[in-house]
Amino acid sequence: MLAFLGRRLLWSLFTVWAVVTATFFIYNVLPEDPARVIAGPQARPADVARIRTQLGLDRPVHVRYGLYMKNLVRPPAETKDDAVWKVGPLRIDLGVSYLKRKPVTQLLSKALPPTLLVGFLALIIEVGIGAAAGVLAAMKRHGLLDYGTVTLTLVGISAPTFLTGLLLQHFFARELRLFPLDGYGQTSAEQLHSAFLPALTLGLYGAAYYTRLVRDEMITLLKEDYIRTARAKGQREWVVIVRHALRNALMPLVTVVGLSMGGLVGGAIVTEKIFRWPGIGSLSVDAIVERDGPVIMGVVILFSTVVVAANFLVDLSYAVLDPRIRKR
Amino acid sequence: MRSIRTKIELLGGLALTWGCSTGVAPPIGEAREGPPQQGGVLRTAFFTDVRGLDAATAFDTAASAIESLVYDGLVTYDDEGKLVPQLAERIDISPDGKRYVFPLRRGVLFHDGAELTAADVKRSIQRALHVKTPCPVPSYYERIVGFATYHDGKTEDLAGVKLDGDYQITIELTEPDATFLHIMALPIVAPVCASAGKVWERSFASKPCGAGPFKVTRYENGQIIKLVRHDGYWEKGKPHLDGIEWFLSMQSFTQRFKFEQGDLDYIRELSEADSLLYRTSPAWRGRGAWEPSLTTGGTFMNTEMAPFDNRHVRRAVSYAIDREQLASVRPGHVSAHAKMVPNVLIAPEPGYPQQTFDYERALEEMRLAGYAYDPKTGQGGYPKEIAYLAILDSYAQTAAEIYQQQLAKIGLRLKIQVVGWPTFLAKTSRRKTAQMGFAGWHADFPDASTFFEPILATKSIQDEESQNAAFFSHKPLDDLLDRARRSTDEAERKSLYRQAEEIVVQEAPWATSYTYSYLELWQPYVHGYKPHPVLSQHLRNAWLDRAQKKLAAADCSRGHRLLDRLTCPRPRRAPTTLALARGFR
């Protein structure tokens, strides 16, 4: 088991390093000049050149890469506390945003809670609706409920989040004024209230997908011998469904939820823009449009770590759930 | 990512068209005449975020609009766009134009309560131009005596800025500079509180402090900037408002929704679809205004690359462009424009040199260039495709397609390459890289020089960082521009820039084509605002008729729209989007 964990951990670290390195080089070989973007189209050559020197962009790309990786993880004494993340004895320094001129760790720390709030709510919505609708559709197979669910999920999967988001905003915020049109709010209650529409936007897409997944899995499982046995033993139908079938149907759901973390972030990029949600998505869009390299790198590092960690946990849960994997 | 924004905007427009077939909501309240009222908070929004509010470093349009409320400078622009003293009592200029003396107003207080002195003015200028300050445009100030040594970090004192006691400051220049007062009106060198320090610190950008009529109490990136009245402001009775709330990163369609509900009082960034709705709405007739444009748009032609190294081809392009057709695609927002300097700065009197649309002449120029084209057979013309660089999701992309069609009629085949803004900047500034492409310039400050020197002078050409995308080098033009910069005689300068325009017409390094404007709207209860000829979103004199705004808040038809359709008396139905569009045509 320990060897399995060790192998997975090493692979996870390697994956994060590979993503960071690839992103760094892709960003730096683009035929674009962040100094020119920062200075603006009107800036004079001398000013652009000076900004380039200030940011260290006049150095060769491999030198910049070396410096970035060297600064990424530092001993505690070398950096200001407000510019780093503390991880045990180490300090993570992601540099300073070219445009906002704030430490990237500060920007990410501020943007992460809103994204986590929406992501968590979206996860509840998508898994909750997905599991419930999937089970109901499987139970009433070939019935009106099943066909209705299948049709709705098709619509849900096909509709891009920017369309769903706009429609939800139009009806729930503009017409009914049940929720704010956009923004984050200052109190926890306001933030929860404001988070609902972005979370629903993200959650509906996932819910449609999970409904299909759970439905198909349940249909297969409900034909299994052990389900027939359970029914023959006279167990109540809900016990058969929930305890015997659904439990097994959740295994692929766990896998997909882990893998979908990246997708959740991808959806958040658009959703957060529509709802002016100050999360990682909004930060990413602005950083990419304005070629704010340190922020782009910070976001990539953060999310590659999150996705890799989520997959590591999924692997771990497999090992816990399935003894055959432990023995490999 | 810009395409994501565009998709959101397009879908927003679609949702509006579908969901809001009732057209736009009528104005809130009535515009009643009367003396300015004190109090109230005005709310508005930006589509973009504001990067920071440190006067020395934030130079974009959004930041500048807020900075003009937070910082006062030594000089500013009056309602007609003329330079006038602000924190200075007057401006004394030596006869040789190299020495400017600014006696300061007494009793001017910063937001922190400290009194403004000449030492604060010098500290603020030095801070902005310090080697460690990431100011985007320090070279504007290169004519101040001692700039080079100070900006290179060789001295700690900017020799050309001198204190004459506590309330007077003198600035000496190496040579006369007609644009000097314009650059002194930029927020970059506006006096900042002592808390800003002598050297730039990044924390000041989120806690700005100046001597303007409003002070910043809350600043959250991507969310909101809250300004409140500076009670110690030097101009008695100003500002009228208790505060201004500026929402950031707000989508255009959300801005419209909030404007309709009275949650925003003034907006400027309407989508094309919404702009059309408001312009054609009977209820909004006569309201709002177009922001004066300080922008010139068109296409550049790289004079170092074939076929534009041939003057006749460039002239053919300038004659072949039908500017009215370009404007007709976005009526109102885009206007035909055929000279370098915007009309706000130099109005074109009869005979003023301008490029013109003349198809026959364009064909003749192609013949003179050796690429004769027969429109009847489609034979001839330039044999190769010309790469045209356009910017993704902008009007420049639309314009590129129109240029493509228009220039095909004279035998020039454009192959449009659509790229993002950073790529566009990189390619157009590199020697012998971009043949032809979008050309646009917004005034750094309201002076004709800014439309020539940075973009068409020989000194702006570099191998890598060229601002002169046309790589146009023309000695007579350079000489004219140098003379105009040094001249302090306005009539002479105007004449010199007229000659410069004539050179552009004859040599055609740019085919100037259009100018772009924003439609500004404000509710009738907002008073004291009109678009300023120079300063964008200049809200410092605005005031609110709060009684009218309260009436609007009590109007149930503006509340829970769907529910109120059942409970409120049915309001007069506005024309549908489709009907409005038909009517507009």
Give your account of this protein's structure.
The complex is a heterodimer of chains A (328) and B (585). Chain A is globular. In chain A, 75% of the residues lie in helices and 2% in strands. In chain A, strands 1-3-2 form a three-stranded antiparallel beta sheet. In chain A, helix 5 (104-139) runs antiparallel to helix 6 and helix 5 packs across helix 8 (188-221). Chain A has 328 residues and is mostly helical. In chain B, a hairpin with a 5-residue loop joins strand 4 and strand 5 (99-103). Chain B is built from 18 helices and 23 strands. Chain B is globular and about 75 Å long. Chain B has a six-stranded mixed beta sheet. In chain B, strands 1-10-9-8 form a four-stranded mixed beta sheet, with no helix packed on it. Chain B has a four-stranded antiparallel beta sheet with strand order 4-5-7-6, covered by helices on one side. The chains are: A mainly alpha (328), B alpha+beta (585). At the A-B interface, helix 2, helix 3, helix 7, helix 11 and helix 12 of A face helix 1, helix 6, helix 12 and helix 17 of B.
The CATH homologous superfamily of the domain at 106-290 in chain A: MetI-like
In whole angstroms, how far apart are the ends of chain A? 9 Å
The assigned CATH architecture of the domain at 106-290 in chain A is Orthogonal Bundle
Number of H- or I-type helical stretches of chain B: 18
Question: What attributes does this structure have?
Answer:
heterodimer, A: 328 residues, MetI-like fold, three-stranded antiparallel beta sheet, 2% strand, globular, B: 585 residues, alpha+beta, Dipeptide-binding Protein, domain 1, Dipeptide-binding Protein, domain 3, six-stranded mixed beta sheet, disordered N terminus, disordered C terminus
TL;DR?
The complex is a heterodimer of chains A (328) and B (585). With 328 residues, chain A is mostly helical.
In terms of topology, how is this protein built?
The complex is a heterodimer of chains A (328) and B (585).
Chain A: H1 2-29, H2 34-39, H3 45-54, H4 61-72, E1 73-74, E2 85-87, E3 90-92, H5 104-139, H6 144-158, H7 161-175, H8 188-221, H9 225-232, H10 237-259, H11 261-274, H12 280-289, H13 293-321, H14 323-327
Antiparallel strand pairs in A: 1-3, 2-3
Helix pairs in contact in A: 1-13, 5-6, 5-8, 5-10, 5-13, 6-8, 7-8, 7-11, 8-10, 8-11, 9-10, 10-13, 11-12, 12-13
Chain B: H1 2-19, E1 41-45, H2 61-70, E2 75-77, E3 83-85, E4 92-93, E5 99-103, H3 118-129, H4 147-151, E6 161-163, E7 168-172, H5 180-184, E8 214-220, E9 224-229, E10 243-247, H6 252-261, E11 266-267, H7 272-280, E12 289-290, E13 295-301, H8 311-320, H9 323-329, E14 334-336, H10 359-368, E15 373-374, E16 379-380, E17 385-391, H11 395-408, E18 413-419, H12 421-428, E19 436-442, H13 453-456, H14 475-486, H15 490-507, E20 510-516, E21 519-522, E22 526-527, E23 543-544, H16 546-554, H17 561-567, H18 577-584
Parallel strand pairs in B: 1-10, 17-18, 17-19
Antiparallel strand pairs in B: 2-3, 4-5, 5-7, 6-7, 8-9, 9-10, 11-21, 12-21, 13-19, 13-20, 14-20, 15-16, 22-23
Helix pairs in contact in B: 8-10, 14-15
